[in-house]
Write a structure and sequence with these properties.
The chain is mainly α and about 150 residues long. Helices cover about 80% and strands about 0% of the residues. The termini are far apart.
Amino acid sequence: MKLKEVMNVAPLMIAIYNIMCRRGFSSNEAIQDGSKTAPSLSFELNFLQNTLEQTVLITTLDYASMGHLDPQMLVALSSIYCTARSVFYFGYKQATPGNKVAGRAVGFEMSMVPRCMQFLALLYYSLKDDVHPSLTEVYSSYIESLYTKVMD
């Protein structure tokens, strides 16, 4: 396992660990059964769900990007993701009650904008590798057929 894979799942592991510690030996049944009705865990459960969704997306993007993007770029993207999840978590937790959006917006944008750029780069390389060679082949065969017609 490489560093970037560990870094991609680190926020997810921290989110799971956080909920485990918060549940701990609590006598509150809503906390023990994982119900989303436990008000003391609502943010942590939402954070965990969001982190899981992003981790699946990011891991898939990274595996698809191997061979197209520089491995150091993938490590840098993973570092940004870990930092962004921390900014999101602490920004949301420290934000004023009436302004939770501002607290989490920076972290969310930090985690998703680089990955959207990664997706666009991957799309570019996929189109370049898949579409252009076939167009070149079609064009070459067309030119060849024209050449044979002219020469006959």
